[in-house]
Amino acid sequence: MRAIYSLAWLLVLPFAFLYLLWRARRQPEYLRHWPERLGWTRTWTGSPRLWIHAVSVGETRAAAPLISAWRARHPECAILLTHATPTGRETGKALFGETVEQAYLPYDFPPLVWLFLKRARPGMGAIMETELWPNLFAACARRKLPLFLVNARLSERSARGYARFRGLTRPALQTLSGLAAQTADDAQRYAELGATDVRVTGNLKFDASVPAETEQHSRELRQRFAGRFVWLAASTREGEEPLLLTLLDQLDLPDVLLVLVPRHPQRFEAVARLIAARGQPWARRSQPAQDAHFNVFLGDSMGEMAAYYAAADVAYIGGSLLPFGGQNLIEAAAAGCPALIGPHTWNFSEAAAEAVAAGAARRVADSGELAVELRALHDDAQSREAMAAAGKHFADRNRGATQRTLELLEAAWPATGSL
Q1: Chain region(s) in the chain for CATH 3.40.50.2000
Q2: What whole-number distance in Å separates Cα of residue 67 and Cα of residue 89?
């Protein structure tokens, strides 16, 4: 089965570079460092280092507590952080600067994987969340390189998809040295697919620290918002912005300011054109204030989501009104921002359910119910305060995943220290 999979990669590799060219129309960064996608990462000549793969922005931010804890415990150990997207790489650069080396993970074709491992010389690997690469996993096993899947999550939908290719996923999962799942449900799904050493460690995102500049940025935002009731639409996906802009008109609450923060930065300009076409007064984060009166604010900045949550009165968590699976509401809870979520939250099903049960979030079935909840919270400061307190408590009681994950990795690290 893996031979067929490798042959498929051989056939699609030329199209992979066409895809990079297509993505580069909006994000020229896709054309940078492209040899790394063929395994040509910088040759490492030092002692073995920890390698962490975080595909994009969310995974990179989730890795931050683990990287910080590892560096505190093992200051002599270098770290290689790999990504698949330019935004993930940019996030890693913003979080860690030059203290970690960054590269793109190569495509999962055997010669490229072999070249990457030969040049990168990791002593141990940790793959974040839901990345399963059969050839990469097999190559690590042949080199006796300990490899872990950490902060692992797997929705029912993804589990059904992987189950259709059990001949690939089962052997890949069985090569792992260990799997640290976010929840018991995630652990069970991985075990049913063939993973063996599975344990529940929790979600690293609960341990993420607030960036040092958050307070200053949130203060700047509140000054621009001028005392308005701030409805934050966080990490919105394509098709959601028109729904939310229409809903803003229907609310007919003059003091409400809609702050739209698209999930993907390559969509900033498209969303800006959408807002402008509706004829509403609007502003954007990337430009200085020109008009004190605006109904819509476009959050076209990177790395400021914590500041947006801190400056908001209530937040809708994007990707959940339409069937995208939802985005993570942990950051909203930790900031004490009341959260509203739609029906589609399978990517973070347990966290969403627990947040609702804790009183930190409310679930709506559609945009009509979203309007009802927005009006209710707009008129009821006491309910907003109760949800804020519940969110902070929910976030506090779920901390500790970093320590549990660190213990799992450290148990394997001494054996690799002399490689």
Answers
A1: 214-397
A2: 15
